[in-house]
User: What shape does this take?
Amino acid sequence: MPRRGHELRIACAALFATLGLSCAAMAEPTKPLTPDSAVTDYCAAWSVGDRGARDRLLTRVWAADGVYSDPEPTLAKGRAALSDVIANFQRHYPGAHFRRSAPQMHHRAMRVTWLLLAPDGSQVTHGVDIYDMARDGRIQRIVGFFGEPPSVTPPFPAKASAGAQGGAAQLVGTWRLVSATERMKDGTERPDPNVGALGRGYIVYTATGQVCAMLGDSQRSRWAVADQPSAAEASAIPEKLVAYCGAYSVDEAGGFVVHHVEIDLSPNRTGIDRKRFFTITGDRLVLSAAPPLPDGVQALTITWERVR
Assistant: This one.
């Protein structure tokens, strides 16, 4: 038996030497692979420059036939291909590293948000990775996405759909500006300063719930040099001009429409809601702004004519 045990040890050593392992290493207990440790080691691999050390990390956490893809577009099948992708990444982003969220998991799927940070700590980009996990705890697949996820517009009530009856459906279409008037608290009236007495513009309501409006003073001063405004001329671009787009929703019972602004000429107005009471008579649409209104203004009324 002693001789046979010696022969088994020799055979074990020969076999494991071929595999680059050792009997002692094989005898050590394997560290449990949890979802969090798999993500930790995977992200760490993207910062490891030594190919051998990086491949050892990937062997621990990446399935032999695992697949990685992202919008670059990148598609890597297997550990060696992924290691090549990481090496190329490091050439483009030397010294960069990832900071990531805790994984959110159900069944064998996970998602992880991440930041890519430059060596000085500044953010390069960010995104989300979707993981599929193998039964042994390794990563079977990652689909990466860069940037913010797509936004969801506010719900568009069924009563305001293209097939609806009443004022909501009547809003759908293109309307040309007739006038924009402010009634002051002292009883006087004046053209809206943002539009002027000779304002021009359009507002469009789509059947799928989007609204775009652009109106302004048609007598704005022209630039001295076409397409090359001076600093002063460029700074005056937002003056006497209103422009925004977004989604809209209608409350017919309340008699108002809300413009959910997604992009605006003024960055400070992006993300706000513009509430407008409305009436439609024939081809005339009258929008009245809900409070708050500018100082001294009691009412703001914008009249539009349907384009046919």
In short: Residues 10-29, 156-165 have pLDDT under 50 and may be disordered. DSSP finds seven helices and 16 strands in the chain. The CA atoms of residues 123 and 293 lie 40 Å apart.
